[in-house]
Every structure is written in C-alpha cells, then in structure tokens.
Amino acid sequence: MPAKILEKSAAEMKETKNTDAGLIQGNDSDADPRKFEPHYDRITSADQVQIYEPVMGDPNDVPTTGLLTATHYLKDNRLLPRGFDKATADKDIGVYGAAMQDSDFAGGGDVVHYAVPVPARAGPFVVSVELLYQPIGFRWAHNLEKYDAPEPKRFLNYFNEMSSSSSVVVAKASTTQQ
Length: 178
Hints:
Number of strands: 9
Number of helices: 3
Distance between the termini: 23 Å
Shape: globular
Oligomer: single chain
C-alpha cells in the first residue's frame, strides 16, 4: 500500500510507490528472489510496504514461483472475505506468516498502522494511502527469464511493455494530522 506523508506545504516525507518497470519500491522480492516482504501490522520506515499476496516455498523454505517446486506457503495474507475466520480455516485456504498473529487482519479487511518519524517542526501533516492492485508481480514475471522458449519470452515482452501501467488504484484514503 503506497503511502505519502506530506507537510501542508507539500514537502514530501515518505512515499512508497510502483516504478515504471512494475517494481514496488520497498518490496524485498523485487530485488532478491530469495526474499519476500513480510506482512506488517505496523509500518515504521520507507523500506517497508504492505503487500497482500501468497508466497510459496520450496522444500528448503526458499520462496518460489514454480508451482511444481512449491510445497507450502511461507506467507499468505491475501485480503479475506467478510465472515472468514482465519483461526478456524482449513489449512488449504488458511492464512500463513505474520498475518496469523495480526489481530486486526480479519475477514473484511486489515488495519495497517503507520508510525514514521517527522521533523520537529509543527504540522499539520496530510497522510495519504492508496491500495493498488497488481495482477502479476515483477518477481512472478521475471522468474520466467531463465526459460528459453517462445511462450515465456512473449509473455515477458508483454509484461515489460505494460509494466508501467501494471497496477490500478482500487481504494485511497487521506487524513490531516496536527
């Protein structure tokens, strides 16, 4: 979820966003395929970004996008439908990772708490947050680069051509804090 904290004078304090290549600034997986961005209840720095996604792991607990090498979930914090109870859900459709311990990650939504340092000068500050939807993430697409076949090459070409517009804003909120 990209966030901006701006002084009323519009001096930018913090922002995470998508870049032109389909990358999400702060997403550990975009930079290193052996890592993934954990679920956050509290965001405290610009290198943390909440990404609602499943992350599969191989038998050595290494993240994988290969369906034939995946054996379990390392993380699954996809937003839950209203009425879904993560505590009683079957393991095949369960919540995995830190989201399981996040008390306000529940059926119908999630609350992400932002606590970022701001200069000692007085506010007020405008806090803006956007929820973006990206159907195919950078890592999922670029893990296909190792395959020398026309289909993955064509798909990667499509992805790269469209990556600058690979996400859409589905919700946004803003508030002024004194």
